[in-house]
Structure formats: C-alpha cells, structure tokens
Amino acid sequence: MLVLSTPLLVNFWVEQQFEASKVWLLRTLVWASALLWLGGWLKGVRPRALPPPQRSLLISLTLALVICLSTLLSSNQTVALFGSLDR
Q1: Which of 25, 28, 32, 78 has the most C-beta neighbours closer than 10 Å?
Q2: Which residue in 51, 47, 27, 49 sits closest to 37, CA to CA?
Q3: CA of residue 58 relative to chain centroid, distance
C-alpha cells in the first residue's frame, strides 16, 4: 500500500521533481509502519488479514485509482501513462 501512494508526491521546487521526494516519502512511510508494527507486536496486538479474494480486489482497485489519479494530475497525461524514452 505504501508503494502505491508514492506516485502522488511531486515536489516542484527541486531540480528533479519526482525521484528524491518519492524515495524520501517511501522510506519515511516504511519506517513509520515498521515502528507501528513493532509497537503492536510488543502490546500483543495481532493483525487481521483480509480473505484472499477481497485482498486482491482491494489491491487491484487501489492500484487502478492511484494510476488514474497520477495520470489525471500530471502535466502531460500521455507521458505519465505510457512513459518516455527521454530519460
């Protein structure tokens, strides 16, 4: 889930608007979720898992929503959806 949220972050005030901010956000979210998991584990809280069909449907819908949002909010929707060979 954390990896799906990183395409939404764009920092317009740096030279490379996308990469450094996304890496920083992903690392921060991973450390925060690891600390939350550790705190829950120390308290004895057991995570509840969704049944497999619901989990795969939820992940697929979330991925589709993130791709649509990042494409719609992009300045160039074609490049956002299909990529480019410039880099």
Answers
A1: 25
A2: 47
A3: 14
The C-alpha atoms of residue 52 and residue 85 are separated, in whole angstroms, by 37
Q: Is the dihedral of CA 57, 61, 64, 66 positive or negative?
A: negative
Compute the Cα dihedral for 19, 83, 9, 13 and give only its sign: positive
By residue count, the chain amounts to 87
pTM (predicted TM-score): 0.44
Q: How far apart are CA 57 and CA 54, in angstroms?
A: 5
Q: What is the pLDDT of residues 23-61, one digit of tens each?
A: 777 788 889 989 998 999 899 888 777 677 777 788 889
